Amino acid sequence: xxxxxxxxxxxxxxxxxxxxxxxxxxxxxxxxxxxxxxxxxxxxxxxxxxxxxxxxxxxxxxxxxxxxxxxxxxxxxxxxxxxxxxxxxxxxxxxxxxxxxxxxxxxxxxxxxxxxxxxxxxxxxxxxxxxxxxxxxxxxxxxxxxxxxxxxxxxxxxxxxxxxxxxxxxxxxxxxxxxxxxxxxxxxxxxxxxxxxxxxxxxxxxxxxxxxxxxxxxxxxxxxxxxxxxxxxxxxxxxxxxxxxxxxxxxxxxxxxxxxxxxxxxxxxxxxxxxxxxxxxxxxxxxxxxxxxxxxxxxxxxxxxxxxxxxxxxxxxxxxxxxxxxxxxxxxxxxxxxxxxxxxxxxxxxxxxxxxxxxxxxxxxxxxxxxxxxxxxxxxx
Length: 381
Description:
- By secondary structure, the protein is an all-beta fold.
- Helix content is 0%, strand content 52%.
- The chain has a single domain (27-379), classed as Methylamine Dehydrogenase, Chain H.
- The protein has strands spanning 4-6, 32-38, 46-53, 58-67, 74-76, 82-87, 93-99, 106-113, 119-124, 130-135, 140-145, 157-160, 176-181, 187-192, 197-204, 209-219, 226-231, 237-242, 247-254, 259-267, 278-284, 290-296, 300-306, 313-320, 326-331, 337-342, 347-353, 360-368, 372-379.
- Strand 19 (247-254) and strand 20 form a beta hairpin.
């Protein structure tokens, strides 16, 4: 049964504790499959893939591995060869695929309605039992239990956000832009661009249920437009990138109650830049030393160091992405490379990451794919 709730500010609190989470499958070869989500309004017809060997930096194209409409965001199961993709259309869907780890090919399992319009983000909870989706168009989040074969059941919980933000053009209503799991899997965190809120939900993986936490959200600056969110590997800090004001907000995170408190908000742009810009992706390096954010307009990756004692950020550089509108990027699991997806120039540019400074250097490798908007890695056989 689908449970639909309006979000109210005074919600009851309930703490849920889970056993240790399963470890991710290791690659037998050391290689990874790189899956690229795209918009299919141009040259692309769906999800594309490459095989990547981090030890040498070698990339082998695998071509179109699934034909589907506007798979703008994809994500992987933590332990099984399964991929999930949104269909970012007005009547939104989320689709399940099984992965052939040798060839990279995707076999469709099923698809279900996403619980709203314009789904733009999908994640698998850390127990591997549920898929969660953020619907940008209608401003809702939803959870979907997984069946034994990895296919999707109908939504077990749908929460419709309500309200508006400071900007009458962009924030006339809610726009849920991402949803992420806390390190202990007890909470799901949703960034809503339309509300200037980072919302926290108590999550029960056995039921696939979402319940507003207490407090139910943390505010960011009015008109900031929070978009994507990322936890620090230590679990002590978290970060949200704000699309409309080109900033990143750093939070401290109290894991037991699931509470975020703002530490700092800082620009993703170099001093003196006055052109049009909006931000998109944010990720923390696996080492926890660096944070990266993408600028669309300035067309760069902002590189920050992270203070290990405070969680605060210091801008190191802005590296040009050698393309236009870097909507997304992916850091490979070894932490050695960053793949910047330039949506408007139909390419992905590969950079090597300096492990001491976090700085980015282009490798010279450029992957050609139509309207790339998401980059994800999973072990290959």
